[in-house]
Amino acid sequence: MRATRQRRERRGDKERRKRDRVQRREKYICIPADRQLQRRESTAPSTEEMNKRSSVREEKAAEERESREMQEERRESRRGNQREREEESRQREGGESQKERELEGIGRPDRRTNGEPRNSRRRDLLATKEKERESKRQNDRARRRREQKATKNKRERERAEREARDREVEKETRRRQKKKIAEEEEREKSREREEKKARGRKEKRRRVEGRERGPSEYDVR
């Protein structure tokens, strides 16, 4: 029984594969070229839809870029704060060791540095460089924020202009539809007037012809 069931299942799988193969052949080979083109044209998105999709993709990419830049700014700020803390701790440790050396008579004022300890000038130079780097980081952050704000304003302005254009197009479409309906109504009224005039002329002609013929045999009787 089990072998029979397995053979039946294999036969069913074979028939299913054959049916799928036939369907694929009909789908990709047997359809005429004009029908394939028609199907592609019917399923292809319109130009407006493509423009909307591209604008949505651009907005999403800009938002992702802004979020990445903001995250990078936060990381840079954290790194800068960490460097400042490390520098402060090094300065504290250096100051304590300098005091200890001065107490021991090692860090005496040096004539080559105008009476200052020899390592104080290097420390001041490092502090100046760190201040310059921090100022550059702050300027870069401010510049990035300005650029992001300008990009956001530009995107909002473009969106407002696009919506205004869409509203104008919709208004123009409604105006044309109203004009078309009014023209149809005017043509219908004109046709009714012409038909009414034709009926009046026909009725008048019939009355005139009746007077010219004289009373009919039915009227005499």
TrEMBL record:
Region span, Disordered: 1-221
UniProt superkingdom: Eukaryota
Biased composition (Basic residues): 198-208
Bias kind Basic and acidic residues: ranges: 49-141, 148-173, 187-197, 209-221
Name of this chain's protein: R domain-containing protein
Lineage: Eukaryota, Metazoa, Ecdysozoa, Arthropoda, Hexapoda
